[in-house]
Amino acid sequence: MDQHFPEWVRKDEATIIDGLITAILNRGYLISVFDGEEYSVKRSADRELIQKETAATCDTTYVVRTADGVRVGFFWMIHGNGCDVISDYSDSPTFDAIWNEIEPLTDWDLYHEGA
Question: Would you give per-residue pLDDT tens digits along the chain (115 residues)?
Fold first, then answer.
């Protein structure tokens, strides 16, 4: 799958965040991208647009909503943290399931040969 993250996004972070986007969209949710100042994307399922607007600042929050606009939670990312890019998320069974699905992508050994 093509990735459209800004060029400064680390490969390990892009892989993890792409997995996060997939897990959210596959559940039928929409993503709003908040860069700490403004929403650059609102209620979207457009993977390319979401990726392009990720990491505009040092942290990005994905606000997750249902198709009818009800907020269900968030994922907060701090860029530059590598495999620990996902720093916090809403505590709920749904978000725990999303985390459990993508957690294998956060394994440091996947990105460091000979580790």
Answer: 578 998 889 999 999 999 999 999 999 999 999 998 999 999 999 999 999 999 998 999 999 999 999 999 999 999 999 999 999 999 999 999 999 999 999 998 888 765 5
**Residues near 7 by beta carbon (within 8 Å), at least 6 away in sequence:** none
User: Which segments of 26-79 are extended strands (E)?
Assistant: 30-34, 39-44, 59-65, 71-78
Indicate left, alpha or beta for 93 from its phi (over 0: left) and psi (-120 to 50: alpha): alpha
State the alpha helices, DSSP H only, in 2-115.
11-26, 47-53, 93-102
CA-CA distance, 16 to 51, in Å (whole number)? Answer: 12
What is the rounded distance in angstroms from the CA atom of residue 87 to the CA atom of residue 76? 6
Please state the pTM of the whole predicted model.
Answer: 0.92
